[in-house]
Design brief:
This protein has 199 residues and is an alpha/beta fold. It has helices at 9-16, 36-43, 51-58, 114-120, 146-165, 177-192; strands at residues 3-6, 29-30, 33-34, 64-70, 72-77, 80-86, 100-101, 105-108, 132-137. It is globular.
């Protein structure tokens, strides 16, 4: 596999906060790259759908996954590049929808997926770097924890995208109930800091 790479220190912290507190000391980075052996050891014996277990599998998947906490990012739609800014409270109600992204996080696909766009009935954003990218808003007004946003994106969308590429699931986009259940569960686990096995 390649790696999960935190592109800045805030992204490292968001990834740590995406798992229950007792596992956070196992989330170790070297040059921004998540250490596979420490996260695998932490996940050993855990249920497959625990956030720590999903993270350990993402760390060994064949795709590069870059995670960045930022105020702005670029994406491609229909092979055109757009510079986007995450919404913040100081923008009020008047903002350019072509340049401002309302959600506190976004997952960008490594390439255009025409069959997925056809099924979803919408254009899906693509990375300008040819890798899976996760962007988390630096000052989102909606979700207080960047860990919750990281969990939603990584253990919901990124995980399901990879499973979709493998033919295991039929969707990974927001409008599908299976995807919503996965992202909600991952977010809840990051928020509560516990999983069913810990209760």
């Amino acid at each position: 596999g390649k790696w999960v790479q935190a592109m800045n220190e805030a992204a490292e912290q968001a990834i740590r906060e995406s798992v229950p507190e007792r596992f956070r000391s196992s989330i170790v980075f070297s040059g921004g790259v998540l250490d596979v052996s420490s996260v695998k050891a932490a996940a050993k014996g855990r249920p497959l759908n625990d956030n720590i277990s999903i993270l350990s599998r993402l760390a060994e998947n064949p795709n590069e996954i870059q995670v960045t906490v930022a105020q702005s990012f670029s994406w491609k739609l229909d092979n055109k590049t757009f510079d986007m800014t995450f919404y913040s409270n100081d923008m009020g109600l008047s903002y350019d929808q072509d340049q401002v992204y309302l959600n506190p996080g976004v997952t960008l696909l490594p390439q255009k997926e025409e069959s997925a766009e056809s099924k979803a009935g919408e254009k899906l954003p693509v990375s300008t770097r040819g890798v899976i990218e996760v962007y988390i808003s630096i000052n989102s007004p909606w979700m207080s924890s960047r860990g919750k946003i990281a969990a939603h994106e990584l253990y919901g969308h990124v995980r399901r995208y990879i499973l979709w590429k493998m033919g295991i699931v039929t969707d990974f986009w927001h409008s599908n109930p299976g995807n919503k259940n996965g992202t909600d569960a991952a977010t809840d686990k990051a928020e509560s800091g516990v999983t069913k096995g810990d209760r």
